[in-house]
TrEMBL record:
Coiled-coil segments: none
Keywords, comma-separated and alphabetical: Membrane, Transmembrane, Transmembrane helix
Transmembrane segments: 6-22, 34-55, 61-84, 96-117
InterPro entries the UniProt entry points to: Phage_holin_4_2 (IPR007165)
Protein's name according to its UniProt entry: Phage holin family protein
Naturally occurring in which organism (per UniProt): Autumnicola patrickiae
Amino acid sequence: MIQWLLHIVIDAAILLLAAKMMSKVELKGFKSALIVALIIGVLSFLLSWLLTAVLNIATLGIFYFLGLGFIIRIIVYALIIELADRLSSDFKTVGFLPSLWLAIILAIVGGIVDAILF
C-alpha cells in the first residue's frame, strides 16, 4: 500500500513537471496532478490487463513473441492517460502523442523508482 501511494505522489510530480515542459499538456496544479495520478493508477489496475490482451490479440502477439511486449504496455498506458484526460477537467492532453510521451516518461521514472526504493 505504501509503495502504491508513493508511486501516486511521484507520478503526480512527474505529471506536473511534464505538463510544465510540454506545451500540449495542461495540468492545473499539484492537487489536480494527484487526482490525475490516482485516476491513472486505478484505471491502470482495472483496465491494463484487458487492453493489453486486446492489443496482443490485435497484433497477433507479434510484439509479445519478439520480446517487445513493453511497446504494448506503453501504448496501453497512453490509452489510460487519454481516459484520465476525459475523466478530469483539470488535465488536458492535445492528441495522442503527448499521452504517449507521458506514458514513456512515467514508465521510465517508475522503473527507476522501483529499482532504487523497492
